[in-house]
Design brief:
This protein is mainly alpha-helical. It has 10 helices and 2 strands; from the N terminus they run ααααααββαααα. The longest helix has 30 residues.
């Protein structure tokens, strides 16, 4: 991949990652609930989902899935239901116990948080269709494809890890300002509303063939 092509893709990665979406909401939610270091496991799960999507596109399956209305609908509604599930969990989350230094955060299990992030990314057909439209613009069909897709994957993952670190860290600091159970409840319900908003937007998507 030529340097100027990579630089253009590198800039595009920042725009894509910084755009608010289900992944950003999930990262902020985990940062709020578990703190930065524990909540960041969710970001690793997001990257596993991202890598799998890139592999699907590189293998040529992305075009097939994007052209299949049935596959699009199945993936879409799985994603909608999962976001609704996260919204309900966030709404019902109990306020955290308080100590002198602030709230005592629960210890989330790393594998559960990784799996949560993975499902958020992999169940979003919009991301797959979007990457299917964007990635080929940076691919030279006459050059080795494996190296190009590997470069694209590493670049996207590194940028997204940095961006999700920002979202997770920002949310983890917010909890220090939440001194009462009522404030924590309001914040939990705000994130529940964001998950529901993301689910609604995803439900409104239509396959390109519709």
């Amino acid at each position: 991949m030529a340097l100027h092509t990579w630089l253009a893709f590198f800039a595009a990665c920042w725009v894509i990652s910084l755009s608010p979406g289900a992944g950003a909401i999930a990262s902020m939610s985990c940062g709020l609930q578990y703190g930065f270091w524990r909540g960041y496991w969710n970001a690793l799960g997001l990257q596993l989902g991202l890598v799998l999507q890139i592999i699907v596109i590189a293998a040529g399956l992305g075009a097939i899935l994007a052209a299949s209305a049935s596959a699009f609908i199945v993936i879409k509604w799985f994603g909608v239901l999962y976001l609704v599930y996260l919204a309900i969990r966030q709404w019902r989350a109990a306020p955290m116990a308080l100590q002198d230094g602030g709230a005592i955060r629960p210890l989330g299990k790393p594998l559960n948080l990784i799996f949560r992030g993975f499902l958020v990314n992999i169940s979003n057909p919009k991301a797959l269709v979007f990457m299917l439209a964007v990635l080929p613009q940076f691919i030279d069909p006459h050059a080795p494809l494996l190296l190009q897709y590997s470069t694209i994957g590493v670049t996207m993952v590194c940028v997204d890890l940095l961006v999700m670190a920002g979202y997770t860290g920002l949310a983890s600091r917010v909890l220090r300002l939440l001194r009462t159970p009522r404030q924590q409840q309001r914040m939990n319900r705000t994130f529940a509303g964001l998950f529901m908003a993301a689910a609604t937007l995803l439900a409104m998507l239509r396959p390109a063939t519709a």
